[in-house]
């Protein structure tokens, strides 16, 4: 809320200052510290697509005169691009933070979690799932559910089918999963549908609790 930038941010209106040293809001201390001589300022708010001010843009010292209405139009267009860039950067940061948060949860949980796309291919599998299935991540990711679990675990595929048809979760209690070495483990398994933000079915997830 201080200086020319603060006034523009608070008011939402651009300021075209021809003589900064005569302007009551101008702070000459930066010029004194840097040796820079500010002779003209054009300051404009940065507004996001929701109409919220998120910053300001300042350009200083136009060569050969003062900033004109044409300069204001150019800066307004440029500032609109800046707003998009800032929002995209913030969105990317938010997405990465959420991704890291979700991955931390998946790593810390003792339950195995396997996500499948609509073709029943494994998209993700956390460390617990890989351990429960006694496999490696590279051997699990990308495999089709029928290939991963095999005919010996037809009940798993049946549970996935029920979820695909009903759109509701399916719970199997104290069921046996036959592993590749022909050993068997006991699990509680919950199969749930995966729905995106637009309420579109994008696959399913298997939650495995090893109760052996």
Descriptive notes:
This protein is α+β, with helices and mostly antiparallel strands and 212 residues long. Helices cover 39% and strands 27% of the residues. The chain has 7 helices and 8 strands, in the order αβαββαββααααβββ. The strands form 2 sheets. It has a 5-stranded antiparallel β-sheet with strand order 5-4-8-7-6. The chain has a 3-stranded antiparallel β-sheet with strand order 1-2-3, with helices on both faces. The chain is rod-shaped and about 85 Å long.
How would you characterize the largest beta sheet? Answer: 5 strands, antiparallel
Distance between the ends: 63 Å
Query: Helix tally?
Result: 7
String of helices and strands? HEHEEHEEHHHHEEE
**Which range does the strand content fall in?**
25-35%
Q: Give a count of the beta strands, DSSP E runs of length 2 or more.
A: 8
Structural class: alpha+beta
Shape: rod-shaped
Question: Quick check: average pLDDT?
Answer: 91
What ranges have pLDDT less than 50 throughout 5 or more consecutive residues? Answer: none
Q: How much helix, percentage-wise, in residues? A: 25-40%
* Physical arrangement of strands within the biggest beta sheet: 5-4-8-7-6
CA-atom Rg in angstroms: 30 Å
């Amino acid at each position: 809320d201080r200086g020319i930038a603060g006034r523009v941010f608070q008011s939402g209106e651009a300021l075209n200052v021809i003589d900064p040293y005569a302007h009551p809001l101008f702070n000459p201390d930066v010029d004194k510290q840097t040796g820079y001589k500010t002779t003209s300022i054009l300051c404009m708010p940065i507004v996001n697509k929701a109409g919220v001010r998120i910053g300001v843009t300042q350009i200083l010292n136009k060569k050969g005169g003062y900033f004109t209405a044409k300069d204001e139009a150019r800066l307004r267009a440029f500032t609109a691009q800046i707003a998009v860039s800032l929002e995209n950067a913030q969105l990317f940061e938010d997405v990465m933070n959420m991704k890291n948060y979700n991955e931390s949860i998946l790593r810390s949980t003792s339950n195995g979690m396997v996500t499948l796309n609509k073709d029943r291919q494994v998209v993700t599998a956390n460390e617990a799932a890989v351990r429960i299935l006694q496999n490696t991540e590279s051997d699990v990711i990308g495999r089709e559910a029928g290939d991963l679990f095999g005919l010996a675990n037809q009940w798993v595929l049946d549970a996935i089918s029920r979820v695909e048809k009903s759109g509701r979760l399916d719970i199997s209690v104290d069921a046996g999963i036959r592993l590749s070495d022909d050993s068997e483990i006991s699990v509680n398994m919950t199969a749930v549908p995966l729905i995106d933000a637009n309420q579109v079915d994008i696959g399913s997830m298997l939650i495995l609790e090893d109760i052996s």
